[in-house]
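Deliverable D2.4 — example input (C-alpha cells):
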C-alpha cells in the first residue's frame, strides 16, 4: 500500500526552503562585502550596500529558524518524521 504524502505530512516546512535560500544569499553577499573591503576608499557605497544586504539576509534567516523551532515546534534543518512528531501532528491537526 502506497503512502500518500501531502505538504502537511511530508516532514518539511516551506519556510525551511526560504531560510535556506536567504542563508545562501547572505553568505554570498558576505563574501562580496569582504572582497570590497580591499578597496574601501574607492567602493565605500558598494561595501555598505553589500554589508547591509548580507546582515539583513542573515538576520532574516535567523528569525525564520527561531520561528520554526519555537513557534511551530518544527526543526528548521531536518524533517521531523519521528513518532513524536507524527503524534503531535495527529493531535493538533486532526483533533
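Example output (designed residues):
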Amino acid at each position: 500500500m502506497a503512502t500518500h504524502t501531502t505538504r502537511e505530512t511530508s516532514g518539511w516546512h516551506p519556510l525551511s526552503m526560504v531560510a535556506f535560500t536567504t542563508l545562501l544569499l547572505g553568505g554570498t553577499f558576505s563574501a562580496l562585502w569582504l572582497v570590497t573591503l580591499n578597496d574601501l576608499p574607492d567602493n565605500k557605497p558598494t561595501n555598505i550596500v553589500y554589508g547591509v544586504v548580507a546582515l539583513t539576509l542573515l538576520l532574516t534567516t535567523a528569525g525564520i529558524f527561531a520561528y520554526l523551532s519555537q513557534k511551530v515546534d518544527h526543526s528548521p534543518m531536518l524533517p521531523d518524521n519521528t513518532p513524536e512528531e507524527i503524534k503531535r501532528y495527529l493531535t493538533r491537526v486532526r483533533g
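Residues 88 and 94 are 10 Å apart (CA to CA).
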